User: What shape does this take?
Amino acid sequence: MTRITADVTFLRGYNQARVMALGRTARTFERSTVVEATGLTPQAVSKVIARLTGDGLIRPAGLRRTGIGKPAVVYELVPDSRYAIGAHVARRTLRLALVDLAGAVRHSAVRPLPGDFTPEQLLDALTAGIGAITGDSDVRGRLTGLGIGMIGPLDHANGLVRDAHGLRHWHDVPLREIAEKHLGLPVHLDKDVTAGITAEAWRHGATFGDAALIMIESGIGGGFWLGGTAHRGAHTNAGEFGHTVVDLNGPRCVCGRHGCLEIVHHHAAEAGDITQAARVVAVGVVNLLQTLDLAHVVLAGADLLRHPQTYLTAVTEAVRADARRADWLTTTVTVSSLGADAIAAGAAMQVLDRHYGVPELAPI
Amino acid sequence: MTRITADVTFLRGYNQARVMALGRTARTFERSTVVEATGLTPQAVSKVIARLTGDGLIRPAGLRRTGIGKPAVVYELVPDSRYAIGAHVARRTLRLALVDLAGAVRHSAVRPLPGDFTPEQLLDALTAGIGAITGDSDVRGRLTGLGIGMIGPLDHANGLVRDAHGLRHWHDVPLREIAEKHLGLPVHLDKDVTAGITAEAWRHGATFGDAALIMIESGIGGGFWLGGTAHRGAHTNAGEFGHTVVDLNGPRCVCGRHGCLEIVHHHAAEAGDITQAARVVAVGVVNLLQTLDLAHVVLAGADLLRHPQTYLTAVTEAVRADARRADWLTTTVTVSSLGADAIAAGAAMQVLDRHYGVPELAPI
DNA sequence: AAAATTTAGCAACAGCGTTGCGTAATAGAG
DNA sequence: CTCTATTACGCAACGCTGTTGCTAAATTTT
Assistant: This one.
């Protein structure tokens, strides 16, 4: 937990982050754009821009002539100035993504993981994968770190894997620490779903409101973006959305309760009725909307990507019909724009966000 | 929305808020306490304390002799230095609470509201109630404003009541604006459940993690405290927790869906089976824990207060048994310490929090 | 009475955004 | 071509924040 005290360095980081977010989402911007977006004075924006230009994070990209008067300097992010690597650790595969400062996935690759793999086997796969994906030695020097998106439960704050579901060798493994030692890179560990929603939020910038990413794979999870930041929960284990009961008299779930969203969905999918499975997910999504009032719902995950349109239709329809919401209560429903790379890319963006996003402040 | 730019005034407000939070929760504190809690230098804390003392918000309250060395000055909040009034607008009653800067409820009173009351009738009741509760003219000059906690849907950001459930005369009523004009006080409008959870968080200060307040009255709602602030959602309408489906094949709810928590609970309660009703709520609470990973669950509401122990037992038991959580995943379950005043008191605290809490920053 | 220890504050400083004002660059009018 | 209006931009001084270096005050111990 990088807690900083509230001194002037916070102001610097905060305002720089706002400009960076603008550059990420708008591709080009000028001083006046930033002034309007931030409420800072033009002079203050000049200083921020000078600092970022000095660091090589942004650069001038021409002039804009509006008519009368001196032309404005147009700036743009320098995508190649910084990189991060994201890793999506699933039960049988390791997916890696090389993401640049602009949030673009420059390379991605999947490699198999041994059945019931050990921490050591994962580290070896990471080393090999990172070596392959950063063939260009120029990238190496600009790497800000590695983000790992993984199934839980895990302790994000301390970089500890508590009890990864269905993996025997993963109990209280200090993955962040051993990976940092093994790879020589700063490592950021988070739940897969939280990484996924970060990717969506990062690409949308300030216009992105409260949102959830619903991940449909062997299990069903939910990642949340609330109040301008990822919601991880009191013990950084939010997201077990699949284990919410939607059918009090339903079948028994592995978690011990009856009628969990996940088991009900699984039964429908097993029976081949994808439409019904999608409807079950849709019920869960509307439950979330009622509870949390979200602006965006993003669908992702391997099982979803097999029938994206079926799920999209079912959820969209349910949101429209069941939520009985007025026209001012709008919620967009989309399939993750990053496809199978969503988790890995989001994990990488979390690393970049640690450096170039809003600095963390201690709570109250 | 009081958005401030990130300049040095933010730092001042932020660090002052941290000291105020400390004074609220610890009752007495000294410079060294603040230094430890905030990470600021002793000299910076001296300046903050000097400012707050100058404003009359805190005052010296003796010395503490530890042994050798100069004794430390002990400070305390001045509870009487500021007040706020909170109003809980329910379907048939208006409950008012006078809350001091320390978060204590100094007076509270209930008065009936006419059936299907109009905005004008509410304003009249507010005027009369505020007059009665602030009999001491000394309080008047120290009033920071009025907070209104009310059923939704409503637009917190713009102070608009959209469509209060079951109230005919409440469609797109700009309540904040007309109340400010009518009462001559700053007014803060929020959903009842959000006000309620604010009360709990305010009294606990920085040690309070992510939490939910479950309000069981004619309907069932949920207020959320996530990441150190109230979660209101994209359209400030989070909290319709009662309208989450827990029984896919359950009875039809007024909202149009089947098997909502609220209707299932209602049926059980109607049948006189409070234990079963409490169990239904418990299922919903565990759903929330799975999804959001909360540190605290607070139970409140008129119907709950008729059988507090039954509900508390059922929810505590379900949290312990059903969530299948490791020992590091602890969640406390309590009944709101403010009883029937919870919503009104929380609405008042929201007003105080606007002045003496953490200043709002624009998102990213 | 002298020394040790802890607390508190004064003064100078660095760094943030702000304010005041001067300078550069362009289009259009005369 | 020249002048003017207009727009963009930066230098310099400033106010305010927390920080640093050092001094003074108050108490207990020796």
About this structure: Residues 7-9, 11-12, 15, 40-41, 43-44, 47-48, 65, 67-71 of chain B lie near DNA strand D (CB under 10 Å from a C1'). The mean pLDDT of chain B is 92.
